[in-house]
Amino acid sequence: MKLGIIGLPQCGRSTIFDALTGARGEDETLKQSRKDQRIGTVKVMDERVDNLSGMYKPKKITYAQVEYLLPSDILSGTSSKSESAAWNQARVCDALIHVVRNFKDAGGMAPTPEKDFRGLEEEMILSDLAVAEKRIERIEADLKRGRKKDEEEYSLVRSCCELLEEGRPLRMNPELVIAPQLKGFTFLSAKPHLVIINNDEDNESLPEWGTIPEGFELLAVRGRLEMEIASMLPEEAGEFLVE
Ligand SMILES: Nc1nc2c(ncn2[C@@H]2O[C@H](COP(=O)(O)OP(=O)(O)O)[C@@H](O)[C@H]2O)c(=O)[nH]1
Ligand SMILES: [Mg+2]
User: Fold this and answer.
1) Which stretches within the chain are classed as H helix?
2) Ligand 1 pocket by C-beta < 6 Å: which residues?
3) Ligand 1 pocket test, candidate residues 34, 200, 224, 225, most atoms within 8 A of CB
4) DSSP code at position 167
5) Domain containing 16: what range?
6) What is d(CA 232, CA 196) in angstroms, rounded to the nearest whole number?
7) Ligand 1 atom at minimum distance from 201 CA
8) What is the CATH number of the domain that holds 151?
9) What is the total count of domains within the chain?
10) Which of 6, 90, 138, 142 has the highest count of CB atoms within 10 angstroms of its CB?
11) What tens digit of pLDDT does each residue of 61-70 get?
């Protein structure tokens, strides 16, 4: 399973990636201009696999793996090209982890988690709408040239456009999410999402949220603290957690 980590700049994506994959933090200067995506693979240790392999003694034991993908940073100034490159990396993922900043930034600015969340959600909806509208245009142009249109695909893509035009993500309509004819479009707003509220070290609670968006799970995580723990040696981490 491939999970993509997305979020606005400086929300803590790299920090969460390091926390999840146990990678030691990159140094700050490197972090600021990272052009390539990063991938970290984590084995899912599972007692059931251990028990079964104890019983059947297979030649090879393969645990399930989760692949975390951190898309390349969107470089300021070069907006649209690097932006679409980063989104295309997220498109190939099975699900997305949307990181939202909930700590004061370097300039001391208070976080605006709900606004940030909605901003990125809107971007995904608009990006999907552009893909869907392009397909509609294409089908209609082909029709004029005498090609037969695939009614089923046409009506599915039309339904996507309608939902997206209302500003709603495609995951709101399960029928569209599972339609095989739409799979190739790799719609961002159709993917399962987990929203991580990236809290400061001393904050364990979820922020005030006007309306929790439908079908969403919010999870409060102290990203920098988790990253620091993940980069400790096991015995250090044990002592730290006890304390
Ligand atoms: N206080 C606090 N700062 C954090 C936390 N997570 C990240 N930061 C800081 O926020 C800045 C941006 O984090 P980074 O992971 O590079 O964000 P990215 O741009 O989304 O990859 C860095 O200076 C981090 O040290 C957190 O949980 N608490
Ligand atoms: Mg980063």
Assistant:
1) 13-21, 28-32, 47-56, 79-91, 113-144, 151-165, 174-178, 223-230, 234-242
2) 7, 9-15, 31, 103, 198-200, 222-224
3) 224
4) T
5) 2-242
6) 22
7) 28
8) 1.10.150.300
9) 1
10) 6
11) 999 999 999 9
